[in-house]
Write a structure and sequence with these properties.
single chain; about 800 residues; alpha+beta; twelve-stranded mixed sheet; six-stranded mixed β-barrel; 25 helices; globular
């Protein structure tokens, strides 16, 4: 019987090649998208699952109360917390502490004549290898990180520094000490939130008396701490306030709360955390969006099949009637039609596997992943594809199977023409509503990104080269280096600062107490130290007072604030007023006020900012910034490198173009816009394919009517209008349905931006117009063909 069903299915597909191609192409595109999204979702949901003890690993997070900004949440906490938790609670068996680049700064390494920057190093304890499953290739996990000045390299780092040599026992030089290689660890998997190339022993910190005291202080911060428990803990966080109070009783005026964050929640649950050590924080919203887009595209492809299957019901009416007359049961007919849908789904799946393999490089670039389609090593993917195949076959063929099988021979013509038509109309509306939502989302996303790129940031970000200061000798001789840079023909101006607008590392913050205010009225403000060329180089506008001056010795105790800070301080005339930052032993008087400029991304509102003199107790200068002009950029960069190497033979020359770093703030948003755009194209393409099939069917069904109308004098334009108007109505209804859903979804997305566009009516009109144009072009092609046909042949049509 199966063989007979297969013959009938193949015969039906071959007799209707156009409809078969439309169904196959639509399903293949839909399943390809689903495969790629399945790989993406699987990768996102697998973060940190490779650790055997993953359910029992927790990270300590900390909450601090800021007088003016409310609660602030950190992924780092006090130095002694981990060991104290192990000592106080039997359910916590081990702890491990880390310091990262955020807390230690970057490290320059020398190997012979070669120099390298290391920005992804961790300083950690021997228990690191007991809690986490990072496997050592060489070395003993018990002792590799026990001695001071020990370092464990990843396999890629060992290859980078030593090539084919055995690195064990060899040394790497830094500007402070030499490090002995005591182990080589496998590269961290891509689905690990911890990313590193070097692991330094915690004993290296403890060898320094100052670090050892800081580590033992309950006022310390910036230590990433993980604990391993005997079992999964529930309600344990309720015990922690008393624990902190016990150990920090003397520091009750500055309350700090800690909590345990499960390892499984770190990837998606860290967006609110500062000082986070986390490779590519995940957004569960994007996972949902990806999954919904895949479902939408697959649904549209399945709708095509359902539409065309019900449209062809009349052609198969005789077959159904004959089968029923000779005794076929309804279950057999259902099996026949479902089998056809499943067979087509199998063919589409095979084609989609080829398409997915071809599309993976593009998709990886879009999603910033390294996904691969390795079926043999990915059992969940195979199971997922099996479910996907069943789902696609059932969704595409379910309604046609049950609909066609219940037709009665005496009434099949009437019911097929009525019930099927209503269903087809509903499905076409659904298809185009989804497509229109994608077009509206694409237009909004691209307009928001364009708004970001065009918005006046309050400074000129173009043609700025930012050069890192990474060595003490460079800081000591910065004025001489500035003078050398300023002599270059292409350099218009050059400044030094601790941070730059659009900072890609971290911005310093201080607690500022205004003159005449009490300590508890302190305000949190961002802080940068600058020199007198900063405003000119960045083209920042001074609106009151004066610039800092190198000629005035007292300017080391002068500051400039932005308008947001002036408003927060509450002074009508802030010039000459004093501000204090007791925690930093810093006092200064306001010399000037600058116009607000965006020193963070447009996701954030402009916050209060203090610009202090470069010689201050809060922060050191960290960058030269040169405004360059002309086309000889490679020669200018070579000259800048030469100047760098005259004063710093330890660290490599490192530079960034500021406008490129500003783009990094919006990479996720740009990616989302591209995803929406691609989804819109795919949904329109699949919907257009389905509409092409329906238009051909409609033209064929109304062949005699068209012939009669032509004999009675109808023009080609009349025939085109006749066949197009019904589809145009459906697209217009789809636009009305899609618009409110798209509006509310986009309003929610735009809330992520402090500065954003308003959703304009033209976006919705454009989306509906594009869908309508596609529908009219698709239908018109079939309508013209029908209108040009010989009416005599049309009247002979049966």
């Amino acid at each position: 019987m199966f063989k007979n069903y297969l013959k009938i299915t193949l015969r039906h597909l071959s007799k209707n090649p156009a409809y078969s191609f439309i169904n196959l192409a639509g399903l293949a595109i839909g399943i390809t998208c689903a495969i790629l999204i399945l790989l993406y979702v699987q990768d996102e949901l697998s973060f940190d699952k490779f650790h055997r003890n993953a359910p029992r690993i927790y990270r300590l997070t900390e909450t601090q109360l800021s007088p003016d900004r409310g609660e602030r949440h950190f992924a780092s906490t006090m130095g002694p917390v981990g060991p104290a938790l192990v000592a106080d609670f039997p359910e916590i068996t081990q702890s491990v502490r880390m310091r990262s680049r955020t807390g230690m700064g970057r490290m320059a390494i020398r190997r012979g004549e070669q120099r390298f920057y290391v920005a992804d190093h961790l300083v950690t304890e021997p228990s690191f290898f007991e809690i986490f499953d990072f496997k050592l290739v060489y070395g003993d996990p018990q002792s590799a990180l026990r001695e001071p000045f020990s370092v464990v390299l990843t396999e890629s780092a060992a290859q980078k520094y030593f090539g084919g040599e055995n690195p064990m026992g060899q040394t790497l030089a830094t500007d402070r000490y030499d490090l002995k290689v005591t182990g080589v660890v496998q590269n961290p998997p891509r689905n690990s939130h911890l990313d590193f190339s070097l692991l330094l022993s915690f004993a290296t910190l403890e060898a320094n008396r100052g670090w050892k005291q800081f580590l033992a202080s309950w006022d310390s911060d910036n230590f990433i701490t993980y604990v391993l428990t005997e079992r999964e803990l529930a309600g344990f966080n309720a015990k922690l306030p008393a624990f902190v109070q016990k150990h920090r009783a003397a520091n009750a005026e500055s309350p700090r709360r800690i909590a345990l964050q499960p390892l499984a929640e770190i990837h998606f649950g860290s967006a609110h955390l500062e000082a986070d050590l986390n490779r590519g924080k995940g957004e569960i919203t994007y996972v949902y969006i990806f999954a919904l887009l895949a479902l939408f595209i697959l649904l549209i492809a399945c709708i095509n099949y359902t539409n065309l299957a019900t449209a062809c019901a009349l052609k198969r009416a005789k077959e159904v009637g004959m089968r029923k007359v000779v005794g076929a049961k309804r279950s057999q007919l259902v099996g026949q039609f479902l089998g056809e849908a499943l067979l087509l789904s199998v063919l589409a799946l095979l084609l989609s596997l080829v398409l997915a393999e071809l599309a993976l490089p593009f998709f990886n670039a879009l999603a910033e992943k390294t996904l691969s389609l390795q079926m043999s090593a990915n059992t969940p993917l195979v199971l997922g594809l099996g479910l996907l195949l069943f789902f696609a076959g059932l969704l595409a063929g379910g309604y046609p199977a049950f609909y066609l099988s219940q037709l009665q021979p005496a009434t099949m013509f009437k019911r097929a023409s009525q019930t099927g038509a209503r269903l087809r109309q509903a499905l076409v509306i659904t298809q185009f509503a989804l497509a229109i939502m994608m077009i509206i989302a694409t237009a909004a996303a691209y307009r928001q990104i364009d708004f970001i790129r065009r918005k006046n940031l309050g400074f000129n970000q173009n043609q700025l080269v930012v050069i890192d200061i990474n060595h003490g000798n460079t800081r000591r001789n910065f004025q001489t280096i500035k003078n050398e840079i300023a002599k270059l023909p292409a350099v218009k101006s050059v400044a030094v600062s601790s941070r730059v607008p659009g900072e890609w590392k971290n911005l310093d913050q201080i607690l500022v107490t205004p003159e005449g205010a009490a300590a508890h009225e302190a305000l949190t403000m961002f802080f940068m130290c600058i020199d007198q060329e900063f405003l000119q180089t960045f083209d920042v506008q001074l609106v009151a007072g004066r610039n800092l001056s190198e000629e005035m010795g007292a300017d080391t105790a002068a500051v400039i604030v932005n308008e947001a800070a002036a408003r927060a301080l509450g002074w009508q005339d802030p010039l000459g007023k004093e501000i204090r930052a007791p925690e930093n032993n810093y006092r200064a008087r306001l010399a000037g006020v600058v116009k607000d400029f965006h020193f963070q991304s447009l996701h954030e509102r402009i916050a209060p900012l203090v610009l202090g003199h470069w010689n201050n107790p809060v922060a050191n200068i960290d960058y030269f910034t040169a405004r360059v002009q002309g086309s000889a950029l490679p020669q200018t960069l070579a000259a800048l490198q030469k100047i760098h190497e005259q004063f710093d033979q330890t660290t490599p020359f490192e530079y960034n173009f500021l406008d490129e770093r500003l783009e990094d703030f919006y990479r996720a948003d740009i990616r989302l816009g591209k995803i929406f755009g691609l989804s819109a194209v795919l949904t329109l393409a699949i919907a257009g394919l389905g509409l092409l099939g329906l238009a051909a069917f409609t033209a064929e069904q109304r062949t005699k009517e068209i012939g009669v109308r032509k004999v009675l004098g109808a023009s080609i334009a009349n025939i085109i209008f006749l066949l197009s108007k019904d589809f145009a109505k459906l697209v217009m209804i789809a636009t009305l349905i899609a618009s409110p859903f798209a509006y509310f979804a986009l309003q929610r997305w735009l809330q992520n931006f402090a500065y954003r566009i308003d959703l304009a009516l033209w976006m919705f009109v454009l989306a509906g117009g594009m869908a309508l144009l596609l529908a009219l072009l698709t239908v018109s092609a079939q309508a013209i063909k029908a209108a040009l046909a010989n009416p005599v042949e049309a009247l002979r049509y049966e």
